[in-house]
């Protein structure tokens, strides 16, 4: 048994799975962005290699029990979130079927009976929790005869697709910009890069998005102003959604690099005569990435579930629009379903970030 595990965690096997995971992920992103149909074989290779990389990592770091414990904590957290949200929604004044024009009592009674709103609160709560354990999230009050799972299945992939494009763009712009700014400290290039970063952080999406639509869609006619139907539709919302996190990542990267430059191991490396590029990219940058990694946990969860404002402006059929509509319509099951999805992604991303701490800084022990 141990010989098999040692074989799986050997550097050669590990490199194969790492490269398979990276190459398949890049192919998935490229094919998706170019609006091509992704073959099932590519999905299979990606998920198998991703799971293998994760399994090898937790075996090498000896954090298997830690991961199991975090998963159990996550399940308990989701149960608490669902319970508290359920009670708070029922405590709000009014109901999901309250309208300006009052419905006849018979119709109101039939609707309440259909969705079990005529039952006592403890019965509704027990019924909902039992459904969660069976994987049933209930039926929407607004979208007649549609399960919450079907709504999430249709809308969540769109939000995740938009979020992945925005995340890739944010990291590809933010980290190099922060590195460049730190290397050119106190120069005009540093000030220009920080002005760009602060602008991306400060300008809200509902200001940037209309300006981009007006300029790139109507004046230049390069890109599509709305919907989600191909490559030209993806660019504007992804750029708008990536601006703020790119600015935050750039500032975090810059400040972290400047902080790490004063550490003793940097002076020791220079005293040994190491090349400046080796010192910077192998020692400084890796240690400076920890604050960016910390910020990445909630950032990934927030972006992958979709930006409400960006999806609304660009008429993207993602989870963000459903969440807004569910709140205004008092669609309790849809609010709970969207909230559980967001909570799950937040917990998962934070757990992954915690596991990656030990990779970027061997001094940190995950236990």
Low-confidence stretches: none
| Helix proportion | over 70%
Q: SSE order, as H and E? A: HHHHHHHHHHHHHHH
Q: How many DSSP H or I helices?
A: 15
User: Strand share of the residues?
Assistant: under 5%
Major pleated sheet: none
The tally of beta strands, per DSSP, is 0
CATH topology of the largest domain: MetI-like fold
CATH H-level homologous superfamily name of the largest domain: MetI-like
Describe the overall structure.
With 367 residues, the protein is mostly helical. The protein folds into 3 domains: 2-60; 69-95 and 104-148, no CATH class; 151-360, MetI-like fold (Orthogonal Bundle), CATH 1.10.3720. The protein is built from 15 helices and no strands. The model has no long low-confidence stretch (mean pLDDT 85).
């Amino acid at each position: 048994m141990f010989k098999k595990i040692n074989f799986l965690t050997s550097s050669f096997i590990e490199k194969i799975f790492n490269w398979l995971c990276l190459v398949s992920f890049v192919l998935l992103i490229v094919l998706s962005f170019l609006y091509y149909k992704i073959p099932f074989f590519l999905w299979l290779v990606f998920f198998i290699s991703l799971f293998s990389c994760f399994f090898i990592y937790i075996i090498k770091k000896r954090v298997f029990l830690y991961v199991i414990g975090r998963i159990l904590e996550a399940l308990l957290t989701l149960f608490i979130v669902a319970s508290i949200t359920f009670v708070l929604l029922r405590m709000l004044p009014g109901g999901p079927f309250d309208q300006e024009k009052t419905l006849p009592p018979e119709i109101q009674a039939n609707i309440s009976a259909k969705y079990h709103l005529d039952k006592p609160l403890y019965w509704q709560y027990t019924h909902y929790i039992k459904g969660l354990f069976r994987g049933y999230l209930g039926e929407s009050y607004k979208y007649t005869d549609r399960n919450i799972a079907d709504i999430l299945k249709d809308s969540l992939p769109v939000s995740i697709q938009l979020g992945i494009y925005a995340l890739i763009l944010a990291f590809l712009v933010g980290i190099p910009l922060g590195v460049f700014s730190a290397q050119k400290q106190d120069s005009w290039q540093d000030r220009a890069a920080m002005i760009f970063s602060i602008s991306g952080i400060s300008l809200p999406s509902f200001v940037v998005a209309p300006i981009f639509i007006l300029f790139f869609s109507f004046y230049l006619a390069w890109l599509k102003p709305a919907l989600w139907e191909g490559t030209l539709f993806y660019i504007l919302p992804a750029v708008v959604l990536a601006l703020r996190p790119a600015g935050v990542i750039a500032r975090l990267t810059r400040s972290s690099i400047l902080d790490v430059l004063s550490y003793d191991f940097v002076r020791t490396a220079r005293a040994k005569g190491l090349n400046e590029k080796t010192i910077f990219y192998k020692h400084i940058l890796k240690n400076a990435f920890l604050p960016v990694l910390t910020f990445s946990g909630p950032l990934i969860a927030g972006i992958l579930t979709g930006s409400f404002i960006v999806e609304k402006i660009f008429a993207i059929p993602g989870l963000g629009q459903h969440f807004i509509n569910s709140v205004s319509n008092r669609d309790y099951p849809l609010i709970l379903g969207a909230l559980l999805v967001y909570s799950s992604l937040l917990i998962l991303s934070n757990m992954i970030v915690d596991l990656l701490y030990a990779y970027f800084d061997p001094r940190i022990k995950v236990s």
